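dumping these here so i dont lose them again. two proteins, back to back, each one seq then structure tokens. dont judge the mess
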Amino acid sequence: MGYADYEALTFEPRDGGVLLITLDRPDKYNAADETMHAELARVWTDVARDPDTRVAVVTGAGAAFSAGGDLAMVERMAGDHDRISHMLTEMSDLVYNIINCEKPVVSAINGVAVGAGLVVALLADISICAQDARLGDGHVKLGVAAGDHAAIVWPLLAGMAKARYYLLTGEMLTGTEAERIGMVTTALPRDQVLDEALRVAGTLAAGSQSAIRWTKRALNNWLKAAGPIFDQSAAYEMLGFMGPDIHEGVAALREKRQPDFPSARPGA
């Protein structure tokens, strides 16, 4: 299977059928621009078809797993119906393709993980996270609904009370706290994360492939059952890109200040 046409992801076959996938924009903290977002959406179908891969491990280059959506991409989307429609389709592909990939996916969350990167980090079948990593869904701080993946999986991982708190406030949490509340499989010192993810992947790659894949397929019916919840949240997020709050959210991030959302002003 060839991965030569990918630009933002790099691939390293390891022994025993393990494929290491790296989000590779370290100068941008692996923020997902249009190219990376598209590649994250389609890579899982390529992994599923790859006869040499039994397990995929995904991590980030440099100090971050992924800093989320590239802000310039967000600015290009705001108010652009065609871009928003395309993103809605691509966002759905990202979520459903990783869920439907029959081969196990292990995430090695080596640093901050938000936005599209967090989709991959938390929808992976097993997640190994740095204790000092910072995870969060900041959509509400941008002025749009939490639609990437959060509504479909956060309540299953951490329960409704924690999901509501973090998704409505947009607050970040550490890898240590994420492990405590069940958001990730385990949290370790940063320098142990990738080695542990590769160890787990090696164990999976040496196991009964039919048994592991069928177990994954059965478990992921929990996520498929929540598909309408995801579809609605994704549509609401994209609807937000057509409104006024997104422009203020982007400006506030650019200027490193608290946003003054039009929808929160007196009389709104």
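---- next one ----
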Amino acid sequence: MDTQTQTELEAAAFRQLISHFQEHTEVQNIDLMNLANFCRNCLAKWYMAAAEERGLAMDYDVAREYVYGMPYSEWKDKFQKKATAEQMALFESKQNS
């Protein structure tokens, strides 16, 4: 496989992942962090870092809006639930290990 085709396939997979997370708002970031050690905010940071590596200025809020499909504050108001004590305990245990 040539590099251009590989890049196109990777970009398509990334876009599908973003779309999947935008459609499945019931999936909370704390759950993603606990299961996979990354969340939507991580994707936004990676997206922003990739832009900056190419000399493109990108604001974190702009990157998050791309990932969330709306301003982050709006997503939080509509979809984010308060993490349970169990979710936070698991998160904290993974941070300390």
